[in-house]
Design brief:
Helix content is 82%, strand content 0%. The protein has 490 residues and is an all-alpha fold.
Length: 490
């Protein structure tokens, strides 16, 4: 199978993520104002319910599928058999999930007011599970993923402005949200024929049992992570109502945009790291060290932005109705750095090395702590308490992973001067943004000015002290420009 360079895959991923973030930031103020706090709260509440059924029906297959597809990419027969086996498991779990979900909808009275919304958004279960997104990530076909992504997102964007205009249109928004999230998976099944050959595969020779142990190990970890990513919203909605969910969702969504940027870039590296760990340890170590610095060089400046400009972001994205979200956003801002480190250790070190059980232990303990803490803090502090618990749970997970895998992590020698440079650059960025705030601009002008000069101050400092990762990025861009100029000349 033709293997594209990791640089090419990275550029495609950056374009996809960048477009997704721009669309999200562009549409968030419109959606928040159109459907309001109550409508947003309902959709986020239902989305948290459906997300659990997606998670339970998928088991641990998405992460397992990426890693194992990468390991089988040079053997079409084994690759085809592997995909069929996982699809059989997913078909069964998807059916069971729908049965359980509809039993809940029919028998739980507290869900009566959102039954239709649950039915609409449950389409994400089917398309998430049978869309084999993990396969395309595993073979590193970022070109196909990117083209499909742009088509679906542009279509969803058009539908949003046509069919979502006032609070009563929140049902339309739910349909568009589902289409935007998983609608592209419709194309995936048909495109599989390009990479798989089912002619020599007999159902008698399929071995589903061999996958149960690894996918269950990953599944337990995924469930535990989801407990403090999704259950907090579910608990908040149950204990404090849709309005509190709306406030928390406003802050959480903005912060999660950046987290998605980092974790999705990590998804490009996961299949390659899984392959290199088994075939080229030296290259594996090079990629691992660069990955951490690259994650943090993105995470630090965005953390500063949400910490210092939370009020401006809130006014621009939601209006004064969402002002109670400001403190939650400030509390959540460090989670960008924390999740970057947690994702790095869990998915780029432990998973490729087959040590996912350590990650599982860490997130189980963090999830238990999250549930207990939320039960005490939500009734007292509402969405503020949920934000505190979210940050604390992620931090606890990192500490546990470091303790359990300290000996091996220390051998990688991941701590370097770049981490100190990012901290110093962040303090300079905070100072610049604080000085701009003295001019008392309106929210939009203050936000735009602070973002531009804040980022400039952060990266100029790193440039002047010749920080290694930034200089390597600049060198790569220079090479790209030189190649483009040569191609134009010829």
């Amino acid at each position: 199978m033709k293997q594209r360079s990791i640089r090419f895959n990275y550029l495609l991923n950056v374009s996809r993520i960048g477009f997704g973030i721009l669309v999200g930031l562009f549409t968030m103020p419109y959606v928040n104002r159109a459907i309001g706090v109550e409508g947003l709260g309902k959709i986020e509440y239902v989305n948290s319910i459906v997300a659990y059924f997606v998670l339970f029906s998928a088991l641990g297959i998405p992460m397992y599928g990426i890693r194992e597809t990468a390991n089988r990419r040079d053997n079409i027969e084994e690759r085809s058999k592997f995909v069929i086996e996982l699809l059989c498991i997913l078909f069964i779990t998807t059916l069971l999930s729908y049965v359980v979900l509809f039993c809940f909808v029919i028998n739980i009275d507290s869900l009566n007011h959102v039954k239709t919304l649950i039915i609409i958004m449950s389409s994400m279960i089917f398309f998430s599970n049978l869309g084999v997104e993990w396969f395309y990530q595993g073979i590193e076909d970022q070109k196909y993923i990117t083209i499909r992504f742009f088509i679906v997102r542009i279509l969803s964007l058009g539908l949003l402005f046509v069919f979502v205009k006032e609070p009563k249109d929140y049902m339309n928004y739910a349909i568009i949200l589902a289409l935007s999230s998983v609608g592209g998976n419709i194309f995936n099944i048909f495109y599989l024929r390009k990479y798989l050959d089912f002619r020599n595969i007999s159902f008698k020779n399929l071995n589903l049992k061999r996958h149960f142990k690894p996918i269950m190990t990953i599944f337990i970890a995924s469930v535990s992570v989801s407990i403090y990513v999704q259950l907090d919203i579910l608990m908040l909605g149950s204990l404090k109502g849709n309005e509190s969910v709306g406030y928390y969702a406003m802050a959480n969504k903005l912060v999660r945009f950046v987290i998605v940027l980092i974790t999705t870039l990590g998804a490009v590296l996961l299949p390659r790291l899984s392959y290199l760990f088994n075939n080229d340890k030296d290259q594996y170590l090079i990629y691992v060290k660069k990955s951490l610095c690259f994650f943090l060089i993105i995470a630090f400046p965005f953390t500063v932005l949400f910490l210092t400009l939370a009020k401006d972001f809130t006014l621009l994205m939601g209006g004064e109705e969402f002002l109670p979200s400001v403190i939650a956003m400030q509390i959540l801002s460090p989670i960008i750095i924390i999740v970057s480190i947690a994702y790095f250790i869990g998915y780029l070190i432990l998973y490729p090395q087959g040590k996912e059980h350590i990650y599982t232990i860490a997130v189980i303990l963090s999830a238990i702590g999250s549930v207990i803490a939320n039960l005490f803090l939500i009734p007292v502090l509402g969405h503020i308490g949920t934000a505190i618990v979210a940050v604390s749970a992620e931090l606890l997970g990192i500490l546990i992973m470091i303790i359990l895998y300290y000996k091996e992590l220390s051998k990688l020698k991941l701590i370097n001067y770049s981490l100190l440079y990012y901290l110093l650059a962040s303090f300079i960025m905070i100072t610049v943004i604080s000085l701009i705030g003295l001019f008392k601009f309106n929210s939009f002008v203050n936000l735009a000015t602070s973002v531009i000069f804040g980022f400039l101050s952060f990266f100029l400092f790193l440039f002047f002290i010749k920080e290694e990762v930034l200089l390597s990025i600049i060198s790569e861009l220079k090479l790209k420009l030189q190649r483009l100029k040569k191609n134009k000349v010829h």
